[in-house]
Amino acid sequence: MAKKNKAPKRSGKPMSRSMALMIVFGFLAFIVAALPSVTILVIGMIPTLVAYIIDLIPGRYAARCVAGLNIAGVVPFLNRLWESTNDMASAINIITDVYAWLAFYAASGIGWLLFASLPGIVASFKTYSAKRHANALRSRLEELKEEWGEEISGNVPESQQEGEEASEVSETEAAPA
Fold it and tell me: How many domains does the chain have?
């Protein structure tokens, strides 16, 4: 009889409905309190959302790469908002600024370029490194051949090896005991 896989038991009690509602309302209150910042984040991070939707590779590495650089393009405008009056009028001024959009999309574009180009660069580096290591091993093999002879390489034909072994055996048998 096959063993049945049992689902691991969760420790503790499940979250109550009132606790879940408190968390949701707390999150919504935070969004309302920080509405100008959330507005800039939502608008500025659209390229990351698109990358997350498009990227179907497990691990979503394209979305991660784009998100990191996209947030780097959004943060200076959040900083500008926080240094000013931090209200919706300032947030709308930032969102309607063409240079803000340029920064959002340029940063995420650099993220896409890194995602597209880095695997090739890393593969080239690894290939170069492997070739360099193989050449070092070949030179070491040549040194060993000079020191120990051609047999160390394992490329000596078997007939030649058998002939050498037979001559060694006959010399030991011919020697007086």
Answer: 1
CA count, 13 A, side-chain hemisphere, 11: 0
Which pLDDT tens digit goes with each residue over 51-103? 999 988 888 888 999 999 999 999 999 999 999 888 899 899 999 999 999 99
Q: What is the pLDDT of residues 153-177, one digit of tens each?
A: 777 666 665 555 555 555 555 555 4
Handedness of CA 43, 47, 52, 58 (dihedral sign): negative
Residue 85 sits in which domain range? 34-118
138 found inside a domain: no
103 contact partners, CB below 8 Å, separation of at least 6: 73, 74, 76, 77
pLDDT tens track for 10-26? 666 788 888 888 898 88
Instruction: Specify if 14 maps to a domain.
Output: no
- Is 78 within the bounds of a domain? yes
The reply to whether 29 falls in a domain is no
Centroid of chain to Cα 21: 37
| 3 state SS of 127 | helix
